[in-house]
Structures are given as structure tokens and as C-alpha cells.
Predict the 3D structure of the following.
Amino acid sequence: MTAPESPALPALLVDTLGRRARDLRISLTQACTLRCRYCMPAEGLPLLPREELLSAAEVTRLVDVAVGHLGIEEVRLTGGEPLVRGDLELVVAGIRARHRDLPIALTTNAIGLARRAEALAHAGLTRVNISLDAVDAELFARVTRRDRLADVIAGIDAARAAGLQPVKINAVLQRETLSHAPELLRWCRDRGLPLRFIEAMPLDADRAWSAQTMVTADELLDVLGATMVLTEAGRDDPSAPAALWLVDGGPYRVGIIASMTRSFCGSCDRTRVTAEGRVRPCLFSDDEIDLAAILRTGGSDEALADAWRAVTVRKRAGHADAAQLVAPRRSMGAIGG
């Protein structure tokens, strides 16, 4: 008796709910130069041996497969902090050489960006998202456990001077920084920097996150609304996680990513690869496939693509609500932003 054939995998990265992954996030390291309380423990995450990290050539190969076989339309390089990679320019240049029109973005804390922004732009980097939770130096130092605000601002200025556009600012909502949110918004507005506030998720390495103490989007809107007029302005794209609000009639808009209280899982278009080459379709799922193992044992591009499709097909509908959500085994720093 002939065994029944397995159902054919879709050519693109599509799950059983019809969501197609278009946005690839590749982590280059889990090391970081800051120790933000909502992400890193004070001592940092254990360093991965160099031989376990994806090399520049391996990153390029995976992007080739993602774009050429799976229809990925945008790549974002993340960490940890990707600027700790001395070969970051090589990674960017390798991708750009093979994909002339592909948007290549970087998520960074901007420490060290001041001296590398021009070279990264020359290599082919398109834009950057920079983490900045406060523009008060003392508060910044408490949140990040490092007194490096001046370096971050220098990195922002250098990115703009190098022509990286847009330079977006990401701020994770925290009880300690909530009252300073209007100050951060005004600082970004005055400089023409798009700002996105993000609800904290249970992805911190210290496992201190709590649904009872997290700052919600509604709380942020109340704080901002006390000193400015906010008008809901929808989303730039149905798959974009940020709901936008006009500030004092516009044209400046602030984004709010309500990851926990206003789930957007139904329109998720992301897929993630960890620094050691494991692909996972969702931040909150521990379901992973080791692409690096396939790559390093002579696997073909189609074998890599098939494995990638297989884990994507298993993607869940979404995460539980904040009160019932079980954190994944890996923290954000180990997964990649």
C-alpha cells in the first residue's frame, strides 16, 4: 500500500491562515553594549562562540534563499546589538551586491553608529531604527544601566548626515519613563524623527515582566493627551504594527505599537532568524528549525527553503492575552528584535 503523499508546501512563506511573511529579521549577535532592563540582565547574555554565529557569507546565502525562493521583500539586521559585529559593513555589502533594490534596515542602540554610519550607508544600508527610551541623561542611565545617551544622540545625528532615511526612534513603555514620554515626543518632533512607542512584552531575560504592572497604550495616550491633542490616523500599511496619531493637528505623527493590549497577530508578516541560524515564525513560539545545520552540511537552497516553509506553516494564530501569556524560553536579546 502506497503511503499518502504529504501536502505540498506553498512556494512562498505562507501559514495556514493565509498570512504571508514578507519581512525578514536576522539577528547577528546576542551581545549588546547596553543592559536595558526590559531586555538584558545586568551581566548580559552568555556570549555565543564565534563559530556558532552566522558568518557574513551565511547571512548573505540565507537572504538569497529568502528573497529568491520565498518572496521576502525587506530585510532587517538586528541583535543583540548588531554594531558589535566588526563585519557589519561586509554583511550589508554582501546583501546589497546581490539584491540591488532590497530595503535593508538596521535596528540598533546607535552606540558606535557615529563612526560607522557613513560606511554602512555606502555599503548599501537603507534605514535605521534606533532604540531610545528617554532623553534625560540620568533616566537613560538608570534604564539602560549605562551612561551613554550622548553616544546615542551622536549616532542619530550621524545616521541622518549619512542619508539613511528614515531614522526612526523606538521607545519601550516603562513605568519609570512614562511621565517623560511627552518630553521624548517633543524632542523627536523638533528633529523630524518618527517615534514609535512599544508596549513592553514578556521577553526580558530577568523574567520581571508582569501584566499587572506593564504600561498600556491607553495609559500612554492619557499621559500624552494631557499636554497635546492626539487624533487617530490609522496605519500606513495594514501589516504595520504601529497605529498612528496626529500630534496637535499634524503633520507630525506618533506611532503606538500595542503588542499586548491590541494584538495585530492577524496581519503579521514577519519571520525571524536567530544569530546562530535558527528560524522561528513568531516571537512567542519556541518552534524553531536549524537552518545553519542544513547550510553547513551542504544543503541546497531548495532544502533551506523547504525547511523554512515547514516551520512557517506551523505558525500559530497568535499569542494569548497579557494575563495568560507564557513567555518563550528565549529572551528578546537571544531571539532578535
User: Anything to note?
Assistant: Residues 277 and 293 are 8 Å apart (CA to CA). The chain has a mean pLDDT of 90. Residues 23-169+265-335 form a domain with the TIM Barrel fold (CATH 3.20.20.70). The radius of gyration is 20 Å.
